[in-house]
Specification:
This protein is mainly alpha-helical and 146 residues long. It contains eight helices and no strands. Helix 2 packs antiparallel against helix 8, helix 3 packs parallel to helix 6 and helix 6 packs across helix 8. The longest helix is centred in the C-terminal third of the chain and has 24 residues. The chain is globular. The chain starts with 6 loop residues before the first helix and ends in a 6-residue tail after the last helix.
Length: 146
């Protein structure tokens, strides 16, 4: 894949701001496994090869099982994820696909039932952050696969 534009080099102030948001999202009270599953699933939905590769690696480093990573694309059919993970993944897909329609009350209620208000807010920021990275990376191809 050819780099279209070096987004980080040409707008370093924006990259610094995104890295600050990324750092803050990683310091949330959410467990690392939930965060990495969310980052990976959003990256899959957005078709960002660089981010999928990065977050598969990060998830493995967090101790994630390969089988759960392999079946993440069909998480609804796989009985491998906790109630919190399933709620986070449902919210991730709904927020990532906002063009398809608003986040349903059902999806929101499922997440609100298992996350505190603070955790739910942090989860939204994690989802928003990865979606921003995905859009910049997939459009610009600023960071090709290693």
């Amino acid at each position: 894949m050819t780099i279209r534009v070096a987004a980080d080099r040409l707008a370093p102030h924006m990259t610094r701001a995104m890295k600050g948001l990324e750092k803050a999202s990683r310091e949330s009270s959410l467990e690392g496994s939930v965060q990495e599953l969310v980052r990976l699933r959003a990256s899959q939905v957005n078709g960002c090869a660089y981010c999928v590769d990065l977050h598969v690696t990060d998830a493995r480093e967090e101790g994630e099982e390969q089988r759960r990573l392999d079946l993440l694309v069909v998480w609804r059919e796989a009985d491998l994820y906790t109630e919190r993970e399933r709620a986070a993944l449902g919210l991730t897909e709904a927020v990532t696909r906002l063009a398809d329609g608003p986040v349903s009350d059902e999806v929101w209620a499922a997440a609100a039932a298992v996350f505190s208000e603070v955790e739910l807010t942090e989860l939204l920021w994690v989802i928003a952050t990865i979606n921003t990275w995905n859009r910049v990376a997939a459009a610009s191809r600023a960071w090709p696969l290693p």
